[in-house]
Amino acid sequence: MFMETEFSLILDRVTSDLGDGVHETQISRLAVIRASSPTEQLHTVYEPSVCFVARGAKRTIAGDQILDYRAGQYLAVSLDLPVIGQVTQATADSPYLCLRLTLDPALLSGLILEAGLKAPPQADQGLGLTTSLATPEMIDAAARMARLLETPDAIPVLAPLVERELFYRLLTADQGSLLHRIALGESRTAQIGRAVKWIKDNFREPLRIETVAAKANMSPSAFHQHFKEVTALSPLQYQKQLRLQEARRLILANLTDAASAGFAVGYGSPSQFSREYARLFGLPPIRDAARLRSSMTGGDAGARQAAQA
């Protein structure tokens, strides 16, 4: 309990002047996150990372899977996933605090080889994100990583050492199988990851399962099954969420009108675009954008960003 409290106090100090939101740091691939109030459900895409919660609580929804996690737990993500994020417990006096480290497959695989680690049983199965209780050793390493932000001169020497320790703790923990999936280049998750990248790079184009399955070196039927197992979405649902999130960004930034945004992301029918947009986000494009703009003022914008991280 002492180390967990120390972790939250350190993150509180380093984020207090930054305010709500996701803040990249001087340490490569490390971000600190703060939210001073609960948020609405927000659609985003998580990248491969591990997030240690130091205070408060959050909910992440992937397809039909709901994951609730709080202080003393961590969320691990093995590939890019469209999700819904929501900070569920946070106040001005006790904000939601989190430390997020983006994962490096090369570093993980090198560490596995160096330490002679073996993949846990069933390391290549299951959803591409999980939550688990952080061990005292993980929390201690995460706290030391956060404390380095208060001594920038020590970052170049000590940050790589702490990061290696933290990855080692994660790889050898109960949920280490998910990190092993990232490091194993020929794992099923890595195969699906190649298909995910292709869909992300070509989400505006019509989706042909045979083409995407070939990127994963799988038959179409096997690909569809394994894609759903890892992402909790069908390939078509995955593409649709990417399209609609990009259209929402374009409309919200006033870069285009609703009809043009639909065409820009691959929709040929404005009515279909409007229906599917409202089904995902709860309101038609223009009304949804107006609601979001009214909420994105002051600290609300930072809280929204924190929920998306």
UniProtKB/TrEMBL annotation:
Domain HTH araC/xylS-type: 193-291
PANTHER family noted in UniProt: ARAC-FAMILY TRANSCRIPTIONAL REGULATOR, TRANSCRIPTIONAL REGULATORY PROTEIN
Gene3D superfamilies listed in its UniProt record: Homeodomain-like
Phylogenetic placement of the source organism: Bacteria, Pseudomonadati, Pseudomonadota, Alphaproteobacteria, Rhodospirillales
Signal peptide (UniProt feature, chain positions): none
Official protein name in the record: AraC family transcriptional regulator
InterPro entries in the record: Homeodomain-like_sf, HTH_AraC, Tscrpt_reg_HTH_AraC_N
Alphabetic keyword roster: Transcription, Transcription regulation
Highest taxon listed in the record's lineage: Bacteria
